[in-house]
């Protein structure tokens, strides 16, 4: 759920959920971005883009899984995003390169690889002052370099990324926190579906959480990639790709622990 104004977000949540639960939900808000094609009024944000060559420091090995090179899907310029994220970006990783196993080879070549294995994705930081354009080795798939405008928004967790104990509710009226949010937030639920997004909360309209939790709390959402006909990628039937990282690893700037999660109908 996204809002352009924090005051409006609080008003809507309190109005629909009640004073206590509404404020509890607002306390979980995170800052993020909608990633769209640039326009004259909304130019490209730093070096953020979809597709194109990777931006890696010299000597950085191209990531592989099972001997096959991963494909570069996006680059986020966190220096350009930092002013909006503020304390929600605890380290300054510079450029973040997002890779996933998406080889341009026959299915028989990679059919035995586990697309859900942690090695199937990689998020690699790079110093912007040292990073150079690095083309993908074959047979990794290359997508057209597409700059994006990162529009700042404030996001609330989707109902499926909430857990019991996050919000107070009447158990006689609702079967759980998802029921509370689905029935009261109505059209404001899951309204980043079909969008590319960075940070904030993901759209998790597949009835299961994307962020997950450990002792340090919900994982941090890094990137949501929707189907994109212009770029030529898709994730199954109405599918979405998510990149997340455990909260403790994010705090330490350890992007080796980032994970990808592909969902489709």
From TrEMBL:
<dbReference type="InterPro" id="IPR015315">
    <property type="entry name" value="DUF1963"/>
</dbReference>
<dbReference type="Pfam" id="PF09234">
    <property type="entry name" value="DUF1963"/>
</dbReference>
<protein>
    <recommendedName>
        <fullName>DUF1963 domain-containing protein</fullName>
    </recommendedName>
</protein>
<dbReference type="InterPro" id="IPR035948">
    <property type="entry name" value="YwqG-like_sf"/>
</dbReference>
